[in-house]
Amino acid sequence: MIHDKSIELFHKAKQFMPGGVNSPVRAFGSVGRTPLFIEKAKGSKIYDVDGNEYIDYVCSWGPGILGHANDEVIEAVQKAAMDGLTFGAPTKKEIILTELIADLMPSMEMTRLVSSGTEAVMSAIRTARGYTKKDMIIKFRGCYHGHSDGLLVKAGSAALTQAVPDSAGVPKSYTDNTLIAEYNDYDSVRELFERYKGKIAAIIVEPVAANMGVVLPDDGFLPFLREITLENEALLIFDEVITGFRLGLDGAQGYYNIKPDLTTLGKIVGGGMPIGAYGGRREIMEMVSPVGPVYQAGTLSGNPIATTAGIKTLEILKRNSYYYNELENKAKKLAGAFIEYGSRNNVSLQVNQIGSLLCAFFTKEIVVDFKAATSSDTNQYANYFGRMLDQGIYIAPSQYEAMFVSVAHTDEDIEKTCRAISM
Ligand code: KE4
To answer: Beta strand 350-354 with 200-205: parallel, antiparallel or unpaired?
Structure first.
């Protein structure tokens, strides 16, 4: 494949944007390749500026569950655009979308729309702190919740499991109220509640972790988090930016039958347009301005174009709920191809798959936590990435992301991908 134009554009992009990109993972840093500059996309395919076609399993990191440029969504957005792009005033569409969210995810009785997952998480945490009048937040190592200062953390002194900044520019004081536990490690959570009794406002968790690759919750883990937060008068925040409307119409909370106090959404809820959302129990959300004392605002929050894309996307998913079985079957076929490749070639390879989310890890360890996930051979992953790209399959340029399947992936796409995996 020729990538001359991407190479040329990347060179120029680096003059005007840090690393030539507007989000770090796009720079292909961990796979040692020049990033592809994408010209267009339709259905399961993306096309780079050199005219190469790829079957896309990044799906814009999750929003693309219907495939790219779904005709109904595009038509609705084009029509909405004719009436104006943004008013900075209430619209009927915000009611339609937040009512749809409440219908599909009943724990979200009341929702505030924002413009990104980061903004949703940042605001949900502020709301949890305002509601509980406590300051400390527990997050899990390997889970990613956007780039707000207090969450860009890594484990500090192991004994205290207090966080320290994991990014330049984040003052130490901004992370003093962030505690780090281990995903699927019950005792690491218990210890924090014992050590910081009465000070913990909330736990925030990816109910299915998808930012250390895909790591599933241990059977009892989510019920345990629900119970220990109730016992300690702390809130449970499900960060469903990835899993929301991905694992099913009612997300991970429906899949695992757990009712969180607050949920954050992004990606699919905007149908490819910039939307984030946070919501939950009415009494908690009524803490948010202008009703309550927790301030939060946004110029383009709930804008008519993004809400149109989100409404149309959720309506299509709701109308075709059988899609989720089809998505899961396609993902299972891919998972099977990885397992077959690993055993036939004596390659240490694990696959975690749930619904239309999956991830292949190059390790012999069963990947049930951050430690096992990070035991993966990232050089092997980079080689696999290059092999797939050269065969016209576009997967995440990082071991610690997920593979997303869309409604638009045909049986032929899946078969071609399975062949590419086994090469
Ligand atoms: P955004 O601010 O990127 O819309 O959402 C932040 C976020 C919050 N919560 C979860 C569980 C997330 O996965 C994300 C963002 N996901 C990454 C991919 N793993 C976005 C891709 C990128 O950073 O370019």
So the answer is: unpaired
